[in-house]
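Structure Section — protein described below
Tokens — whole-number codes for backbone shape
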Amino acid sequence: MPWEKKGFIFNVDGTKEWALEYASIPFVDKINDNKYRIYFSSRNSLNRSSVGYFEWDVNEPKKISNVSEQPILEPGKLGTFDDTGVMATSIVNYNNKKYLYYVGWNQPKTVPFRWSIGLAISHNNGATFERFSDGPIVDRNPIDPYFASSPSVILDGDVWRMYYISGTGWKKINDEDICPYNIRYAESKDGINWIRNGIISVDFKNSNENKVARANVFKENDIYKMFYCYAINEYHIGYAESKDGIKFDRKDHLAGIESSSEGWDSKMIEYPFVLKHNDRKFLFYNGNEYGQSGIGYAEWN
């Protein structure tokens, strides 16, 4: 496979109340020449998620440092869209600020969850983040009536592009409430106000598939490349390409990575994020149980 697995690198140790288990949805922000901050989301004793980070050095890839003692983002005020939990999924550096996009969780009575998209901004190089507002920047509307979640945002010239997931409708599958979701597209001029027209960037492969999630998009040789995850039951990592950055053609056979035969990523692999460092590429991802088993990485061979 083109991706050479380097193995497991991080999970929470259960000593912090805000981070008792899970290290989900890794994504990367550069600190200096060789060092990166890797953000993750973890859960407390009430199963409510917050956002933290650790630091990773290209030259010492098995050494983890500076794990955050406190979360940089916690659940919101009672009654707000994110009072049950927050999970960050993307960061954009813009005008000496860091725009952190995240999922806000609510627990309604009729279905298991409701997701909306929020924004927190750092004005001090990531030392702290403040919510842009107590309300979401992307929520349910006539185009996305069930939820909007898992934003992946890139600044492409003067166009902000968001790849997010949206549900197609709740239904019962094997006595479980399921809302199948795929990857949609939105645009913005400022990273705050978003235009949605119901465009599907990556759709289901067939009628059995019910999850297409967590896009990670970058541009290479004038081609937009996306790694994401998809599932009928357990997640796999997929790959797609686009010429316009809006609609993508699935080429999952080129993803170049699959679950291992045993160990922390043997049941599923999901939530990919590609880091380009000089002429090298690294893939960070979660393993079994949506990040409960932690984070690993691979290098492009």
